[in-house]
Amino acid sequence: MERNELSAAMFVLYLQRRIAALDKQGPKINAVIELNPEALAIAEFLDRERKSGYVRGPLHGIPVLLKDNIDTSDQMQTSAGSLAMVGDPPAKDAFIVQRLREAGAIILGKTNLSEWAAFRDPALPSGWSGRGGQTRNPHLLSGDVCGSSSGSAAATAAGFAPLAVGTETAGSIICPASLNGVVGIKPTVGLLSRSGIIPVTHKLDTPGPMARTVREAALLLNAMRGNDPADPVRKPHGQDAVDYTALLRPHTLVGKRIGYPAKFDRSGLPLLLDPQFSQALELIQAAGATLIPVDLKDPSSARLDEAFQMGIQRELPRYLATRTGIPAQTLDDLLLFNAANAEGPGQATLIAASKVVFDEQTYNHLWGMIQGENAAAIDRLLVTHHLDALVSDVASPAMNVAPLAGYPGVMVPTGIDEEGAPTSIFFYGPRWSEARLLALAYGYEQVSNARRAPEFKP
Questions:
Q1: What is the spatial distance between Cα 365 and Cα 369, in angstroms, rounded to a whole number?
Q2: Domains observed in the chain
Q3: Which pLDDT band holds residue 265 (cuts at 50, 70, 90)?
């Protein structure tokens, strides 16, 4: 674009054709639930700005896909994949969408998801929604896409947009990023605004970037951050001024102390099950890091389901009150609509949320306990072993503990297994450590060159 070899309008047209050929036809990935009819006009406007000498930043004219639980006040729906939410668009953009538009990003469309961010019913297949159908993994079409940001991950992997935004409550960015072979950033809870995002619980909900490289994901994180007075989390002073690309330099692993699952310190089953992770550890060590075997204990937090159900009962009606012209104006409306339309495999989680006895003090106590014990499990390792960060395979407790602590993490591809499915490594650490984690993830990415383009295998 800087060399005038590509325009935003050309880029949008190319991606629209690619989506038509591979998402709706051919392998039928079914990751994009809706395209923005205004995308080309927006691209042409941004091209005129660039031609006049006005460039808003690195994302000027860059198409971005949004998960279909992020509000946009345009011609597109925001439905969480539910037919009960189809009707009038939201009255205003989500805060992070406002930030993206200001940065010059083009909202190309919305991506499919596990309906209601996987909080409709435990029987719900990952990547399935009543409105969008079933998303497929572009690497292995018969493989798992994981949930709930499955559409954002699959679309990024398949090249339907260079950037996508997912959301996570407990694993919904990092798991699909892993299984679809892309980079996913799960930020510290509250780093990015949650305003205008269909909620589960503000104790854990967060949007996050998904991209093919660490640098691209960091640029997207830069663009979405900002001070939202409506978000209940108060960030440390200066946090919104951090440039998450600043530490992305060569040799970022030199001299760092990184903890890893002790099970990989012994020969046997873990090495056989995930040889790509074992190789990743070797590369990290060869790049100058000191690796420390650790044993992360999963607190197996009690009353977790109840805490999530209370969050839905508390937060969802407040969000629905901001919407008009849709069938579900209340949680009861939603339950009745689903029952009447027999949509999907059930709605056990939503029913349980409607029936749970809510008490604000109990709600805060439960989440304080859950977040506290999971944070302590990580903090204990960081302090005891004087670690800069930790890494994990996707079959270790970190995949649960880090999200429940509200702590940040970065998922990075490590290659492809024998069946053709992507493999990954998860970098995680304490609250507000995104810049450090991205630097370490970048260091690994540069020495590994492990990401693979999808082959759309059956």
A1: 6
A2: 8-241 (3.90.1300.10)
A3: confident
